[in-house]
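[worker-b] picked up task from shared queue
[worker-b] task type: protein-ligand structure
[worker-b] ligand name resolved to S-adenosylmethionine; SMILES cross-checked against name lookup, match
[worker-b] sequence length check passed
[worker-b] input payload:
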Amino acid sequence: MEKTDRTFEIQRHWDDIYQRSETNSLGWYEESPEPSLQLIRECGVAKDARILHVGAGATTLIDKLLEEGFGNQIATDISGQALQALRRRLGPEASQKMEWITDDLTAPSSLRGIAPVSLWHDRAVMHFFVKEEERRPYFDLLRHLVLPGGWAIIAAFHLEGAEKCSGLPVRRYDEALLARELGPEFRLARAFSYQYIMPSGASRPYIYTLFERGPV
Ligand SMILES: C[S@@+](CC[C@H](N)C(=O)[O-])C[C@H]1O[C@@H](n2cnc3c(N)ncnc32)[C@H](O)[C@@H]1O
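[worker-b] inference finished, payload out:
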């Protein structure tokens, strides 16, 4: 990854968090990533489909999908510490079945060169991109990588949700706002609100969306 000052700054923020915390105590940790699994089942991608987890952090979704036989997953995050924590939990054998990329979604470099994917999965990442100049490269990358007929799952803080996460401001969404960001090539296939319960017991309202990209 080519690093700008901004990339360094964001990376340091997230590396610090993952370095000083147990992943299962983080305010976005999911014991069971049920809403994402539900949407993945719903879009029906094949077990060998390329699935890109953007801002994967140390998500347990990857463990679950490996258990279910999804053997073509890519985990990317700006934080090398997050990906290391995930690798440690998965262990060497499962880690080898994965592709690992450290990159900044708001200034992507390595990610621009990877093969296209059938499914883009984002939970609690894009909502940090409060500036238009951060969202533009993110959505350009999404459009560059998702195959025609492919899928995008985006889960973000709901319009009535919290205004900050891990000390950073977030932009909140509903399905119409997300559809506008993706543009007319993507059809909204499903959307639902979801109350996520943090390890602290507090709740965070999310909006989950599934989009299908039209054929060329
Ligand atoms: C709230 S966590 C969510 C992690 C994971 N998706 C999950 O659901 O458990 C946000 C993640 O986005 C990553 N992230 C934040 N800004 C990023 C950027 N510009 N590029 C890539 N990853 C980023 C962080 O390192 C962190 O792992």
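[worker-b] attaching auto-annotations
[worker-b] The chain has a mean pLDDT of 97.
[worker-b] releasing lock
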